[in-house]
Amino acid sequence: MSAIRSSSPAIPLSRAPAARRPAETGWSRVLRRFRANPLSMLGALIVAFFVIVALLAPFLARPTERNPYMIPHSGYSSDPHPPGPGHPFGTTEEQFDLFYGVIWGTRTAFLVALTVVATAVVIALALGSLSGYFGGAWDELVMRVTDVFLAFPGLILAVVIVAVLGQSVRNAVIAIAVVEWPTYTRLLRGEFLRVRDLEYVQAAQALGSGSLRIILRHVIPNTVYPMLILASLNMGGIVITFAALSFLGLGAPPGYADWGQLINLSHNWIAGTAGDPFTFWYTLIVPGTAIFLFVLGWNLLGDTFRDIFDPRLQGSR
Amino acid sequence: MAAFILRRLFLLPLVALGVSMLVFALLQFLTPAMRASLYIHDPKQLGALPEIIQKYHLDQPAYVQYWDWLMRVAHGDLGWSETAREPVADAIRGFFPATLELGIYSFVCILAFGIWLGTQSAVHKDHLIDHLSRFTSISGASLPTFVWGLLLLMVFYGHFGWFPPGRLSLGADLFVRSGKFHWYTGLITVDALLNRQGWIFWDALRHLVLPVATLTYFLTAVLVRITRSSMLETLRTDYVRTAQAKGLARRVVVDKHARRNALIPVITLASLLFVGLLSGVVITETVFNYPGIGRWGVGASQQLDIPAVTGFALIFAALLVVGNLCADVLYALVDPRIRLQ
């Protein structure tokens, strides 16, 4: 993947007279693309909505426990209760409030995804620059290690790591970061290889800049867009993996405000009662909708970023 | 061609070795006493933990331990699984056919459905079927497997009662375990037919419908997208236009000329598909209570059954490595440009 710098003037791709179209700056081009595609707008709106929910969580659902991420529960009655006064989305088994769980679950989703991406990017910056800029034996070593990590199906590796480290939110985040870093490292290494031999880097070398300065000032800024695309396409996947771990009983503990954990609590209530098979629909539909919308928003946004910043992929969908 | 396959085959043990090192490195997070459980075959041995730690050098440097462990794994000795209550190797042998059966049916459905839908949506670009398939692939990529699986259960088991979870109903299960049923392959649908027990076959099939539908929905999403874009590109090429210009029927052009070439990039996706299938199987088996390796591995992870988790990791990694090899070989077989290199 490569990106064009958005600060460079747009190159007219068509042979039509370009006179009528004024030279656009990067951001106006981005905005125009967004307006052109309704799905992009939808994605941006959904993500913006979740950002607001996450920011306003303490006002939307007032925490009562010492740890706001633990869902308050009224009583220990085992049957879920349908939406009603006090519980706008109903309650799960053991009376965890679904509304509270969904609202604070948004924070969990953002925290988990951003932490994983940040960790993966830091590892990628360190290893990818070593490997791509200096090459040689380092490159060989780092690439073979990523091969080994990529030889594991991601979820399986995450399950094994959590099994060894113990079940907790922190360990689940570590596990997902371990699964994700090779992808980022390989991307960054590729970008380093591409940028390393460009004229302006040679010029910087000729001017006597040290390796560190070249990497920090000249190479890394040019790898931002591919990273941004990968990260935005990856946000949904990370949240799904985390929810899957929680669903499998290997992520967030029971009662933690996390969508996957709430869905896990609905597992026993799928069949409903004899007369009404959909008695407990809300236990699955409420957290299921939250995670679906979140991931959908990021997928649409990621696709848009890719289309905007990576001209080679345009129209390939 | 032979050289290409040989080269891939040569890489296989190297990756396998790397994977074993990774698993072993993870085990180093455990205390020696917990690692000792890898070498226990009988719960009675638990009293002799210190001797076991001594005997297998668990207090020695990591490379000594790694060599010891690797040799035992190479001999198929993976320790005792507390959750399965049998040696790990036996447990894998017992659970694997169920997972294989689920995988085979899903794989066939994914390929058939995905390629059909991808082709249709490319041929009828911007028509109803194209919009439907794009909607399917976007929503398929955004809905987690377990939510979709639970939804299917809610409707088709909770409401209609057609497709129950599990692998067999109680009656069928009792019959299969009795001496009257002979196991040939471990795949119930195949064995039922070989035993001429139509009702067992039917029962097993009913249990397979929902898990297979779940996996198909997810993995088709990726396949449809790739097939569609690859078909669109191929349909624009000169030789396809020539075929159309000389008056061939549309179907012949699409099926014989365009799709064959369009499928080449799809094969590169096969290994990605395989990864998705392996991860998907773990979740699907848990959702549908299907007694395969995935559900066993998850149960073992929850209950700190470390030998089982190790075996589970090794078998899935091995499957993926072999799957990738198959995809590479297939790619070389299909695309002459690679064969000639």
Task: Show the helix and strand layout.
The complex is a heterodimer of chains A (317) and B (341).
Chain A: H1 26-36, H2 38-55, H3 57-60, H4 98-134, H5 136-150, H6 154-165, H7 169-196, H8 199-206, H9 211-219, H10 224-247, H11 259-266, H12 281-309
Chain B: H1 2-27, H2 32-36, H3 49-55, H4 62-74, E1 80-81, E2 86-87, H5 88-123, H6 128-142, H7 145-159, H8 170-177, H9 188-194, H10 198-235, H11 238-245, H12 250-287, H13 293-302, H14 306-334, H15 336-339
Antiparallel strand pairs in B: 1-2
Helix pairs in contact in B: 1-14, 5-6, 5-10, 5-12, 6-10, 7-10, 7-12, 9-10, 10-12, 11-12, 12-13, 12-14, 13-14
Can you describe this structure?
The complex is a heterodimer of chains A (about 325) and B (about 350). By secondary structure, chain A is an all-alpha fold. Chain A has helices at about 25-35, 40-55, 55-60, 100-135, 135-150, 155-165, 170-195, 200-205, 210-220, 225-245, 260-265, 280-310. Chain B has about 350 residues and is mostly helical. A two-stranded antiparallel ribbon of chain B has the order 1-2. In chain B, β1 (about 80) and β2 form a beta hairpin. Chains A and B meet through α5, α6, α10, α11 and α12 of A and α1, α6, α7, α12 and α13 of B.
Task: Write a concise synopsis of the structure shown.
The complex is a heterodimer of chains A (317) and B (341). By secondary structure, chain A is mostly helical.
* Net shape of chain A: elongated
The beta-strand count of chain A equals 0
SS-based structural class of chain A? mainly alpha
Q: Give the C-alpha Rg of chain A.
A: 23 Å
Strand order of the largest sheet of chain B: 1-2
Number of helices of chain B: 15
The separation of the N and C termini of chain A measures: 15 Å
Beta-strand fraction estimate of chain B:
under 5%
Instruction: Name the overall outline of chain B.
Output: globular
* SSE sequence of chain B, one letter per element: HHHHEEHHHHHHHHHHH
